[in-house]
Amino acid sequence: MCxxxxxxxxxxxxxxxxxxPAHSLIDQSLHxxxxxxxxxxxxFGVGWYGPDGQTGPHGREPSLSTPAVVRDTGxxxxxxxxxxxxxxxxxxxxxxxxxxxxxxxxxxxxxxxxRHGRWMWMHNGAVEGFHRMRRDLALAVxxxxxxxxxxxxxxxxxxxxxxxxxxxxxxxxxxxxxxxxVERTGRAYGVRDPMQMTVAVTDxxxxxxxxxxxxxxxxxxxxxxxxxxxxxxxxxxxxxxxVSDTSRLIVSEPLGDLPGAWNEVPESTxxxxxxGGDEMHPFAPRAA
Length: 288
Description:
The structure is a single chain. By secondary structure, this protein is an alpha+beta fold. It is built from nine helices and 13 strands. The chain has a seven-stranded antiparallel beta sheet with strand order 3-2-4-1-10-9-11. It has a six-stranded antiparallel beta sheet with strand order 5-6-7-8-12-13. Helix 4 (130-139) crosses helix 7 (171-188) and helix 6 crosses helix 7. 45% of the residues are buried.
């Protein structure tokens, strides 16, 4: 499986989130505590939105230009280019992902996050029996979108199915329809519990995160406590004085042991983080 994080809020250096926490994503690439594998060394990726003269999702209207994406097949813990980027890039919305392959090739086109236009997508989990149902799922992708598929992962296929089902208009509905198709197709091949996923997707303005599995036993996912609450709990932490009350992190596992900082995303739930605040809703598959 994999580990990932998504950040939305006050523009910060990527280094602040990727390297500095006690149990940072880089530390998790070697010492994951809650993943299926302790080591996640089959590639990594970061994606971010540039300012374009704007302040991001919690200030003025954010840029909706194509996000920058950097991916590589080596482990994150030893990559000098990632360290260089993290120390110089500042963003108000970014994704980071470290990969542990579930069977597909270790290659750049299989590393997350995936990008289409202004949209980014990343996934932890697996489609059980994907090699058997891959052709059926591929045939459900819009023919125009299919031309942009680059890799061989279930994760990218899920993204393009969601795009096919209207991700750009209604992300929760599109992800629910994608999940419904995967479950129906998998069960036609005798797979009892086809879907295992935590997913993050964004258009550069709003961030959606999903936690769901067919067996109702999903991989871990957490969100950060409101910053104003954390300031009251930990008034000595300078970092909390530098970010807005609406800044949020969503992570596969907590970045440290700060009391009161992390909350588990409930099973079969999706969350929305955007200019108007954040909220959670029940999630269930829908017929495609």
